[in-house]
Amino acid sequence: xxxxxxxxxxxxxxxxxxxxxxxxxxxxxxxxxxxxxxxxxxxxxxxxxxxxxxxxxxxxxxxxxxxxxxxxxxxxxxxxxxxxxxxxxxxxxxxxxxxxxxxxxxxxxxxxxxxxxxxxxxxxxxxxxxxxxxxxxxxxxxxxxxxxxxxxxxxxxxxxxxxxxxxxxxxxxxxxxxxxxxxxxxxxxxxxxxxxxxxxxxxxxxxxxxxxxxxxxxxxxxxxxxxxxxxx
Length: 232
Prior knowledge:
Jelly Rolls, five-stranded antiparallel β-sheet, alpha+beta
């Protein structure tokens, strides 16, 4: 109980102190042996998420791939390329199996109207020197009540995915907010990785340094009293 109180004290005034509101944000639930192809409308293969897309429905490559980085690799003109996850073992590729245009995933979460939220995710780009991966990865993010935003990652790590962190805030306009990640990658490139999605309520502004000092002292006092009571 004392530890809980100490943590609570240290969270007072922090800019983000809520739990992650996204279910299965690292796509680790339902492990796959190597990779799987998911089609639009699938609500069971990625718990918490729904696979979306229209043009991708007609493609044999499906709308989204789930990749297990511990087993999935590809041969390439630059040697073997690997698709390591940003978090855990699994990530998704919203270009599908070969760029199938408009695949993606969405999740609906409960939000409070007028409250600010912070969305963080990682966008993966394969080494642009590899055949089939010459361009930047791009994802369109669509959120209920917000303007669409497109994010790109053109950073390169040799023979591997490069994961770029993306964070932005928005104010909820509905009691239920749907967040979509939709492929926006140029058609000749076959990778737009998404991983480690987090949505947190932005609670209060960060305290001044003096406030942090006082909180630290208060926490230290709590811990000291707890240890002393044990020694008596």
